[in-house]
Structures are given as C-alpha cells and as structure tokens.
Please model this.
Amino acid sequence: MSVVVLGIETSCDETSAAVVVDGCVIRSNVIASQVEIHGKYGGVVPEVASRRHLEVVNLIVAEALEQAGVGFSDLNAIAVTYGPGLAGSLLVGLMAAKAMAFARGIPLIGVNHLEAHIYANFLVRPHLPFPQLCLVVSGGHTDLFYITHHGHYRLLGRTRDDAAGEAFDKVARVMSLGYPGGPLIERQARDGNPDAIAFPRAYLEEGTYDFSFSGLKTAVLNYLERARRKGQEVSIPDVSASFQKAVTDVLVDKVMAAAEVYRPSGIMLAGGVAANTALREALGARARAGGYGLTVPPLALCTDNAAMVACVGYYKYLRGNLAGPELNVVAAQGLGCS
Model:
C-alpha cells in the first residue's frame, strides 16, 4: 500500500508544501518565493520572512493538496523542517504541521533541512547504491557527508566561515549585481575569463575536508577597492568568472580527495549552489574521470522545496522515526547519525 506524505518547508524565505507518494512520486510541489520582497534589502530579513510565511502557509498547503488530488484523510504523515534555518520562519511551518497532524490524528515527522537537500537526489534516483558521498552547498551551508545507508551520515568537512552561497551573495552585493547573488554571478561569468584574475584558493591544512571562503571573498573586495582607487576599469564578467572558478576548484578538489579515501559507490551534489552550471560540469567531469557516477537533482529541486522534505519523511516513516508534540525548532542544528 502506498505511503502518502505531506511535506512543509519554511526554513528561510520560501514557503513550500508538497505531496510525495512512496518517497519518489511527486504529486505536487508548490513554492511561494520571497525573492522579490527581500531583493530590495540585498538579503533575507528574518522578521519579514516569518510574517510572510504566516500569511501564506495554509494557502500553500491547501494548493498542494488540491494539485495532488488528495485530502488530509489520504495522508499517512506530515513531514516538516525543524532546523537548521531562521527560527521565526521554522516556527511558522512547525506550528502549522503540528496543528494539522494533531487535528487529523496522523504522525508528525521532523526533518533536518540538510538531510532534505541530500534526499532531493533520492527523489529522482530512489535506488542509489550506498555508500554515497554528498556535497551540500547553499547560502547557509557547505558540508561534505559520507552516507552509509538511509538516516546515517558522517560529516567529513564543513565551512569554517562563510558558506559558498553566502560568499556568492556578498560578492554580488559589492559588485551591485543584486540578490540572490549566485545566479547573477553565474550569468556574468558566462562572458568572462575564469583565468583573468588569480584569486586565492583556501585548501587549509593537509588532510582536512573543511572549507573556507572568507579569504576569497576578502580578496575580491580588495581587488575591486584597489581598482577603484587607481581609477581602473573593472571587468565584472572577468571578476565573476574568476571568483566562480576559485569557489568551484576548492569544492571539487575537496570532494574528489575524500572520494579517493572513502571510495563511495557514487557522488551526490545538493543545495541551492548545486544549480550552478560550472560546478555541476566541473564535478561531473572529475567524477567521471575518477570512475564515479554523479547524481544531481534537477534545478527545481536544488533550492528549498517541500518535496525533498516529504521524501525524508517517507524514509523516516518506514523506520518509525516519528516526532511528538514536544518537537521544537533548532535554528543551528547540524546533521549527524540518526
């Protein structure tokens, strides 16, 4: 008998609800983005984000159920993101999910946001063989995981300062490109020379799989400031392409170094920055050269969405890993073995 899960995602500035059957059949995946609202501020304003979630979350859930052609009586469980993310935004989704689950007498499942990004890959390839190596790279996270089987993760490395997506946003801001920075820098980089500027790569000490992008971000800022002081014209496409390549080089090199040690069955890429074409192509080429297959979600499943939350919910439901009414948000939660 099929397992039908409603997923709810409100960890940052997207309000999303989705209905997923058996962990891989997406019956609906509705997303209300706040990009235009926060664009004028150059980044997400937490208070504004949570208020917007409050306004639309019930409407988005209703639309997801309608598109899927199901009602609450057809659901086996409700899965909701409870961390990490913006505390106020997380609370809106969690409280809505709790109320619905209690009112309908169906199980509630708490989902880690990083785990949800990983499982965007299992939405499209549910039978991926273990173990897998997964790079989760987004505006708030840059983490490398070794996954032995469903629900079990070993954190191999993470950023020590700025996440890769955060660095993209900050560099885009100083070049007055707008928000969000990732797609805008990628667009500029298409017309630039990635070898025009020798920006630094921070590989840190030997043997570590940790990341660091604050030095690279500072190097870009210093380059732009020096050019301004000297009255030199700056090629925004060249800066964008050179910066993007510096980020991509480090990400790919770290993943492949870990692959040589852990010898996974395959490599996965996840998170908002996984939508970056240069990163997808570079990691894909290196993975193939090393004899590994690379799995990357379609672009629509790279950014925050509730289908990936519902997918995790399905596997937790099968394991009986359910949440109680005491479930609360954990804004800074990491991902470990569960």
User: Anything to note?
Assistant: Residues 129-297 form a domain with the Nucleotidyltransferase; domain 5 fold (CATH 3.30.420.40). The chain is about 45% helix and 20% strand. The chain has a mean pLDDT of 95. The first strand starts at residue 4 and ends at 9.
